[in-house]
Amino acid sequence: EDRKKCTVCGAFFASTSNSVKYCPDCRKRITRRQAAERMRKRRALVTR
C-alpha cells in the first residue's frame, strides 16, 4: 500500500493505484464538480 498526499486538502491516504490524486473525501466533491463542468460545456455546444 502506498501513501499518497491529496492535492486538495493535503491529507495522506492509502492508495493502490498510481494515478489517484484525491483522498476519498475530496474525490466526491471534485468528480461532481468536474462532471458539472463537463455537462455545462456539452450543453453550450448544442445549437437551438
Write up this protein.
The chain is α+β, with helices and mostly antiparallel strands and 48 residues long. It is elongated. Strand 1 (2-5) and strand 2 (12-15) form a beta hairpin. The chain has one domain (2-44). 44% of the residues lie in helices and 17% in strands. The protein is built from 1 helix and 2 strands; from the N terminus they run ββα. A two-stranded antiparallel ribbon has the order 1-2. It starts with a strand and ends with a helix. The model has no long low-confidence stretch (mean pLDDT 93). The longest helix is centred in the C-terminal third of the chain and has 21 residues, at 24-44.
Features of the shown structure:
48 residues; alpha+beta; 1 helix; 2 strands; 44% helix; elongated
Short description:
With 48 residues, the chain is an alpha+beta fold.
